[in-house]
């Protein structure tokens, strides 16, 4: 499904062609292999150096890219041909002929493979390796009806190759061997294989239709300062990003010290300075932090406008809650917040109220959206800025913890014990039981079924 | 200098047109036949209307595309990288593997963080695991579990794949309990499930599928709440917007398009088509004003939602392999991309340059997610391991 090896081949081939450019490519020479001289070969070193120069990359990356080219069969090693790996030394390598490039998608049929193995078997009696022997026997059984043809083809090809120069013959053998190593690897190795599946191609008519739709439906509203908004955001959050700035006292993943997490739980009594600062960045930051929301609620209670936040939370519950409970929840919200004389009446403008009442006749999860938006922006424009200027918030900032960034532990080899975090399911259950117990007015009883 | 072709290719009379040409050995209904390349192309072109050739359709759609680009370019403002020149450059980055999680017997396909910032759920070719420094395995009756997600409460996980379904498993405290018994089937598609995500609560799931649609489901009843049609091929990924209204999400598919959807109406409100191949991963910028995408064309791109255009391309000549997954650091300054050539590239979002390349995995990186508090990111790979980097 997601094996789009095909897409990669043109790019890899571009690299390969560039490498073979007569002027700017790799300088090739004859390489000695035992007693034979192989023409048009290069060393692993040559490949790495060329890649480093051409793409201005470091040796590690050049080695990685070159290795991939070898694994995909574009370059093959002459020494140890079965080991498809790029070695950054004097080991000789050659370019595979385009005929054998994986992108050509020859089906690499059983017949072809059988002919290849038979040739090898005839040439070097009994020199087939184990997995090749296995495959040979398998094929002999499977396509036995064509075996005469196979043997005949093999003999013909061997005869034709005998009439070539020795160097050419060796080259041909190497090319073929490399090709079959890619297409019939010995084990389920990590070399990517050709996928026989072809994804359905997008029809051109559909493409044209959607282009027309885009032209018609696009919204051309412009934010003039759009590049600078990204810069501003990144700058604002710079010191809050542990990857950019570190995190006080230390990143638990690096030092195994979980103080950072302990200081930032939702139930901590004194939040950290960074955390409190973040609440001032945007209203959504304050609301999405459970502790921030709690502190904000305390402030609103003092201002006698807590019902706004309660209403917003109730609307969220409708939007994201179970489908089956929507009608019931909508009725409750109406009674509590919107009905005339409601205990926690919220101030929604008349137009929105009218629209909401209309929608109440057929309650769905979006029926409170307009009212919720109205109250949200009310809080954002009014209560939120005043909260940030309030004594309550300023006190939080003053009292906030600002842990020092610790240097690496003095005893770097001392391993701290790693403890598991509390299971959220366990925490949730404990909270539920606490709630139950409180309602029943009795001390918490742990039932045997849930004791750990 | 490249080698000549020494081998005798099949050269002879074409089975179709009888002309003597180099032949392609192809299989039609499991029968091997020898057609010349012209006849093969003709065969592939069946399916056009009268007076229509692939060429005419192509030119028409190209003209439309250029018109679209012209309109968009008229609203073009200063390029992001030019404006970002005044921004301080990033220093040397030291990101290393801090944990390696082994235990999957197979290729890791997907992972997700729990809101507690310390747990993850991951899925593989055989079955999904939940790690708690590490425990729990659930066996699913299908072989490729391609999507998994942690519920916001931390009390359940959702996963699915080739079984065309998305199922929710409540997480229990008893390690010995068979989780598969409590499973709840929620989503039903007509093709494989490629991605899933809980919305702001445990009660709703958003899914994307190989059948070309996305859908919103009610977990309790399994009812389909909304479906999203508009992609012309498999949808491979999705991400929910972190905006104030919380009503939109973006999806990417094999039709090279990234679409932004309104969850209320089911309408596609914006569409971006500048990638040259399948989009494997989409992720919103932390502010919700933009999103990044990673594709098989070996590039990552940043799309600005307010300006309705692509603002940045993250690519390099030496990067040839496709991107499988992307995610932002907490401040949005860094973009992490997991690639099919086993590496992870770290990009400076503002300047468009590559900051770092990370080696370590021994097979393609299939999934990558930054932790909720930004202290680390986790990558999963076909080499059967997950790595936590910080």
From TrEMBL, chain A:
Keywords: Signal transduction inhibitor. Gene3D superfamilies: 1.10.1240.60, Regulator of G-protein Signalling 4, domain 2, Transducin (heterotrimeric G protein), gamma chain, Winged helix-like DNA-binding domain superfamily/Winged helix DNA-binding domain. SUPFAM superfamilies: Regulator of G-protein signaling, RGS, Transducin (heterotrimeric G protein), gamma chain, Winged helix' DNA-binding domain. SMART domains: DEP, GGL, RGS. Residues 433-452 are annotated as: Disordered. Signal peptide: none annotated. The keyword Nucleotide-binding does not apply. The keyword Isomerase does not apply. GO terms for biological process: G protein-coupled receptor signaling pathway; intracellular signal transduction; negative regulation of signal transduction; regulation of G protein-coupled receptor signaling pathway. Pfam families: DEP, RGS, RGS_DHEX. One of its GO terms (cellular component) is neuron projection. Residues 282-397 form the RGS domain. One of its GO terms (molecular function) is GTPase activator activity. Residues 22-97 form the DEP domain. This is Regulator of G protein signaling 11. It comes from Scleropages formosus. The lineage of its organism: Eukaryota, Metazoa, Chordata, Craniata, Vertebrata.
TrEMBL record, chain B:
Residues 54-81 form a coiled coil. Keywords: Coiled coil, Repeat, Transducer, WD repeat. CDD domains: WD40. WD repeats lie at residues 186-227, 228-271, 272-313, 323-357, 358-390. One of its GO terms (biological process) is signal transduction. May interact with RGS9; this interaction stabilizes both proteins and increases RGS9 GTPase-activating protein (GAP) activity, hence accelerating the deactivation of D(2) dopamine receptor-mediated signaling. Belongs to the WD repeat G protein beta family. This is Guanine nucleotide binding protein (G protein), beta 5b. It comes from Scleropages formosus. The lineage of its organism: Eukaryota, Metazoa, Chordata, Craniata, Vertebrata.
């Amino acid at each position: 499904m997601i094996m789009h090896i095909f897409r990669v081949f043109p790019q890899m081939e571009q690299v390969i062609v560039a490498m073979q450019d007569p002027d700017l490519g790799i300088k090739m020479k004859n390489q000695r292999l035992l007693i034979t001289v192989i023409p048009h070969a290069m060393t692993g070193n040559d490949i790495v150096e060329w890649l480093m120069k051409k793409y201005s990359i470091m040796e590690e990356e050049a080695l990685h890219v070159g290795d991939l080219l070898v694994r995909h069969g574009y370059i093959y090693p002459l020494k140890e041909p079965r080991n498809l790996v790029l070695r950054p030394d004097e080991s000789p390598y050659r370019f595979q002929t385009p005929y054998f490039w994986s992108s050509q998608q020859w089906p690499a049929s059983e017949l072809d493979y059988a002919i290849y193995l038979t040739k090898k078997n005839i040439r070097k009696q009994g020199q087939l390796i184990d997995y090749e022997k296995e495959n040979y026997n398998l094929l002999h059984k499977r396509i036995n009806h064509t075996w005469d043809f196979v043997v005949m083809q093999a003999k013909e090809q061997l005869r034709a190759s005998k009439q070539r120069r020795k160097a050419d013959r060796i080259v041909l053998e190497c090319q073929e061997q490399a090709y079959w190593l890619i297409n019939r690897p010995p084990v389920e190795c990590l070399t990517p294989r050709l996928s026989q599946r072809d994804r359905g191609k997008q029809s051109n008519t559909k493409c044209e239709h959607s282009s027309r739709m885009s032209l018609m439906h696009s919204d051309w509203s412009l934010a003039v300062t759009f590049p600078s908004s990204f810069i501003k955001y990144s700058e604002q959050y710079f010191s809050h990003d542990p990857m950019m700035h570190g995190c006080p006292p230390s990143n638990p993943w690096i030092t195994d010290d979980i103080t950072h997490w302990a200081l930032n739980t939702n139930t901590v009594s004194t939040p950290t300075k960074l955390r409190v600062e973040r609440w001032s960045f945007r209203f959504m930051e304050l609301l999405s932090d459970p502790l921030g929301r709690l502190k904000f609620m305390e402030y609103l209670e003092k201002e006698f406008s807590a019902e706004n936040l309660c209403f917003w939370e109730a609307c969220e519950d409708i939007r994201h809650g179970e489908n089956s409970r929507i009608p019931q929840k909508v009725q409750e919200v109406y009674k509590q917040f919107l009905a005339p004389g409601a205990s926690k009446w919220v101030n929604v403008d008349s137009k929105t109220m009218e629209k909401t009442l209309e929608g109440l006749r057929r309650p769905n999860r979006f029926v409170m959206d307009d009212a919720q938006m109205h109250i949200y922006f009310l809080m954002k424009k009014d209560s939120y800025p005043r909260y940030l200027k309030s004594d309550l918030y300023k006190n939080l900032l003053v009292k906030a913890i600002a842990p020092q960034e610790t240097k690496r532990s003095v005893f770097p080899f001392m391993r701290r014990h790693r403890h598991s975090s509390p299971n959220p399911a366990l925490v949730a259950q404990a909270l539920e039981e606490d709630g139950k117990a409180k309602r029943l007015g009795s001390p918490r009883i742990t039932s045997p079924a849930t004791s750990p | 200098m490249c080698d000549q072709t020494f081998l005798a290719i099949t050269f002879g009379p074409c089975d179709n047109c009888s002309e003597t040409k180099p032949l392609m050995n192809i299989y039609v209904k499991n029968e091997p036949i020898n057609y010349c390349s012209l006849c093969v192309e003709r065969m592939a072109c069946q399916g056009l209307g009268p007076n229509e050739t692939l060429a005419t359709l192509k030119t028409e759609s190209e003209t439309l595309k250029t018109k679209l680009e012209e309109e968009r370019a008229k609203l073009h403002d200063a390029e992001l990288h030019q404006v970002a020149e005044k921004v301080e450059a990033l220093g040397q980055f030291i990101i290393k593997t801090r944990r390696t999680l082994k235990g999957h017997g197979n290729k890791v396909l997907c992972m997700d963080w729990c809101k507690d910032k310390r747990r993850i759920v991951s899925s593989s070719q055989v079955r999904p695991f939940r790690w708690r420094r590490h425990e729990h395995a659930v066996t699913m009756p299908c072989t490729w579990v391609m999507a998994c997600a942690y519920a916001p409460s931390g009390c359940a996980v959702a996963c699915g794949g080739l079984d065309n379904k998305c199922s929710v498993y409540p997480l229990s405290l008893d390690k010995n309990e068979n989780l598969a018994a409590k499973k709840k089937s929620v989503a039903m598609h007509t093709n494989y499930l490629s991605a899933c995500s809980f919305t702001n609560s445990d009660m709703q799931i958003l899914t994307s599928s190989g059948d070309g649609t996305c859908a919103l489901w009610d977990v309790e009843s399994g009812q389909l709440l909304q479906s999203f049609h508009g992609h012309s091929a498999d949808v491979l990924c999705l991400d929910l917007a972190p905006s104030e209204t919380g009503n939109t999400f973006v999806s990417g598919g094999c039709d090279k398009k990234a679409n932004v959807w309104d969850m209320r109406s089911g309408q596609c409100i914006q569409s971006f088509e500048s990638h040259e191949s399948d989009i494997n991963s989409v992720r919103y910028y932390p502010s919700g004003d933009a999103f990044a995408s990673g594709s098989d064309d070996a590039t990552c791109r940043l799309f600005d939602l307010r300006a309705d255009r692509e603002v940045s391309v993250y690519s390099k000549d030496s990067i040839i392999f496709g991107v499988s997954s992307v995610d932002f650091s907490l401040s949005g300054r860094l973009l992490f991309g997991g690639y099919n050539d086993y590496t992870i590239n770290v990009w400076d979002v503002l300047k468009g340059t590559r900051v770092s390349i990370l080696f370590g995995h021994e097979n393609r990186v299939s999934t990558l997610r930054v932790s909720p508090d930004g202290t680390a990111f986790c990558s999963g790979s076909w080499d059967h391991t997950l790595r936590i980097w910080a």
